Each structure stands twice: as C-alpha cells, then as structure tokens.
Amino acid sequence: MKRSTVIFPILLLMQFSLIGQSFSLVQSLEYAKQKNSNMVISDLDLRLSREKITEQIGTALPQINFTGTLEDKLKMATTIMPGELIGQPGTTLAIQMGTKYNATAGLTLNQKVFNPSFWVALEAAKISENISQLSVQQTTEQVQYNVCSAYYKCLVVQKQLSNLQKILEASKQTLASTQLKFKNGVGKKIDVDKVQVSYNNTYSQLQQTELKYKQVLNNLKFAMGMPVDANIALSDSLTDYTVSVAIDGNASYQSYLPNRTDYQLQKTMVQLYEADKKNNIAAYLPTLSFYANYNYQSMRNQFDLFHKNTDWYANSAIGLELKIPIFSGFSRYSKVEQSRLSVQKEKENLHLNEQSIYVDISNKSDEYSNSISNIQTEKDNLALAESVYKNTQIDFAQGAASSLDLTQAERALVEAQNNYYTRLQNLYIARLDLEKAQGTLNNYVNNLK
C-alpha cells in the first residue's frame, strides 16, 4: 500500500464523529445545565438547606408524642417496713409491694414559650440556604467556564485538522507529480525523497492532531455531563466568534467584588460564624417551656390487662418548666470566645480574598491585553506563510524552485498555523479567565448567540 492511500481511514474517522448530534456552544451549555453531575449535586444541596429551615421552624410548633409501656415484673421488689406497723416493735417486715403486670398509655405535649436559641438557629438555617444558593451559582459558573473552554479548544483543534488535511492533500499531489517527473527522467530521486519526508511528517502530525481532537472532544463531553462514548459534532466554527476587548479601564477593582461569587460566599460565611456566636451567647439566657400530659395506667397480678371489664386509671398534669443556666464550668464562656475568634479569623480571610481578587483581575487583564496584541501579528504571519507556500508550489511545478524550498515553505506554513491557533486558543481562554475574574462570566455566557 502506498503512503498516500492511508489518508482515507483518517478522513473516514474524521467523518465518524459527525454521525452524532450537532451541538452549538449555547446548546452545550444548556445540556450541561441539565446533565452535569456537579449541577445536580449543588441543586440537591440547595433543597437540603431549605428542608433544614422547615425543620427548624417545626421545633417551635407543639411537640406531641404517644407513649406506652407494658411491664412484667419477673421478680417483685422487696421493701423493708418497721414491725411497729403490725404491733411488733424492734422487728422489720420484708414486703413485696405493687402488681406483677403494669401497663401505661398516654399523650405528652411540649411547647417552647421562650427560647432565644430558636431564633438564632432559624437565622443560621436561612444563612445556610443563602450559602447553598451561592454555591449553586458558583458551580454554574465553573461548569460554564469548563464547557466554554473545552468547546473553544475543540474548535481550534478541528480547524488545525482541516488545515493539515489540505496541506497533506497538496503534498500528496506534489509527491505524485515529483514521482512522475523522476519516472520520466526529468526529475531527481533526492527531490522525491525530500517531498516524501515532508509528506510523512505532515501525515504524522495529522495523526497526532486527530488523537488530540478525540481527547479534547472527550473533555467537552465530560464537562457537559455526556457519556464519553456518545457521538457528537460541533455546529459552530471559529468564524462564528469575534473577540473584542472586554476591559473597562475606568472600573475599579472594588466594583467587581459584588460580582464575585466566591467573595459573596465568604461574606455569607462571616454571617454564619456571627450567628454561631449569637447562639453561644443565648446559652446564658433562661428558657421556658409548657408541658401537658394525660395518661392511663393499669395494674394487675394476672395478665388480663386488656380484658373488657378491667379498670384503667387516668392521671394528667400541666405545667411550666423554667431552666436558668447558672454555672457550666466556664464551658459556655469558652464557646463564646471560640466563636468570637472564628468571626475575626473569617473576616481576615475575607480581607485576604479581596487582595487576591484584585491581583487576579489585574493579571487576567494583562494576559488578555497581551493576547489581543499578539493575535494580529500571528494572523499576519500566517497569511504571509500561506502566500509563500502557494507561490513556492507554483514555482516548484514550473521548475523555478527546489524541493528544499518547497519543504521549507511547507514547514513554515505548518509552524505558522500552529502558532496562530495556539495564540487564538490562548486568546479565547484569556477572555474566559478575565470574565471569570471580574465575576461577569454568567453575563458573557448569556450574551452568546
């Protein structure tokens, strides 16, 4: 088999991925919103936090319980009584009191009247819900970033594959023409060998790029929450995207803080620590509860507790229970101090995060600006390399250029393409990084068409 004929399996493999459903970037993001496991988990966490609020509210409502016991005293307890009860001073009597079988059944009701910890716990539960909502937003942003990043990489590698296929096809034709010239005695064997080596190198690079495309496509499917064995294709192309400078030179770093989900999440954590401090302080305050119970009791020496004619004796009570903390061995004081220190620590972490965000925005802005300035140079260089390669092909066909000139022009073109698309990929990723650093990634995604 000739080397030139092995391109067919690669082209067939390239078309194989197109059998599946086509996805645009917007469709990929919508799919990820529904299927990505991280999104599902964060939504479940949010629902759990809401149930905790309901649970806490439920503790303020009346707590009603039914209790029942059935007892068989296998060996009755013995009580010592003084002999004076039966006219025998100085002696004692061993008497077994009670009944062998006893049963009780009743209802108890407890109602909080005053408990400061309840309101603090309710506040903490609501703060936890806010944390879960922010976590959902943070997870959404990360999934959006991963999907966009993977999709852009797929587009770039797909374009590289297309260009390499064109170069390989042109190299194939040049190789066939050179072989024909050599066969007819008007060409040199060394020219055939040089073109053959160039063809082989391009073919090898095409294989490597094909493997890379499969890998980045798998990464995209993973980011979307799609099975890795699913067949999909990309309906967008690089020409669908334009990259504009997204830097507001007049905006201060502080103005981006409200947009940063991680910063808002950390601020909410400060509130949660403050709620814990309030809860520990509330432990110093008294609590008051109302209780009521109504019970029936049956006592027999024979196991006929549930016979129709047996008697059950009722008893009931209502009351208030007051608890006033007096001394806990300084444990309550230690808890309050721990929570106070935790609040201070979290506030310091928040301040540290602010500085980190400022640095992040500054660095991402510089990287994006640098990518913008570099991409035009690489684009111009690519256009120049394409022109040189095209002209060298014409000159070689006419005998005005050597095989060395042609192979060098081809290598220069492949290198220019690699440089340009690497810069282009970096540019798209730099844009995502900047949007993420500014906390505007969600707006960026929502404006995609």
Describe the structure.
With 449 residues, the chain is an alpha+beta fold. It has a single domain (3-69, 114-290, 328-446), classed as Outer membrane efflux proteins (OEP) (Up-down Bundle), CATH 1.20.1600.10. It has nine helices and eight strands. The strands form three sheets. It has a four-stranded antiparallel β-sheet, with no helix packed on it. Strands 1-6 form a two-stranded parallel sheet. Helix 3 (37-58) runs antiparallel to helix 4, helix 6 runs antiparallel to helix 7 and helix 7 (331-397) runs antiparallel to helix 8 (403-438). The longest helix has 68 residues, at 116-183.
Report a brief summary of the structure:
The chain has 449 residues and is of the alpha+beta class. The protein is built from 9 helices and 8 strands.
CATH class: Mainly Alpha
How many strands? 8
Q: CATH H-level name... which superfamily?
A: Outer membrane efflux proteins (OEP)
Number of helices: 9
From the 3D coordinates, which CATH architecture would you assign? Up-down Bundle
> Low-confidence runs (pLDDT<50, min 5 residues)?
1-18
**Rg computed from alpha carbons, rounded to a whole number of angstroms:** 40 Å
Distance between the termini: 47 Å
Task: List the domain count as a whole number.
Answer: 1
The averaged pLDDT comes out at 88
| Strand content range | 5-15%
In CATH, the topology is named Outer membrane efflux proteins (OEP)
Shape: elongated
Largest sheet descriptor: 4 strands, antiparallel
Write the layout of secondary structure elements.
Layout: H1 7-16, E1 21-23, H2 25-35, H3 37-58, E2 63-72, E3 78-82, E4 92-96, E5 101-114, H4 116-183, H5 189-224, E6 232-234, H6 261-282, E7 287-300, E8 313-323, H7 331-397, H8 403-438, H9 441-446
Parallel strand pairs: 1-6
Antiparallel strand pairs: 2-5, 3-4, 5-7, 7-8
Helix pairs in contact: 2-4, 3-4, 4-5, 4-6, 4-8, 5-8, 6-7, 7-8
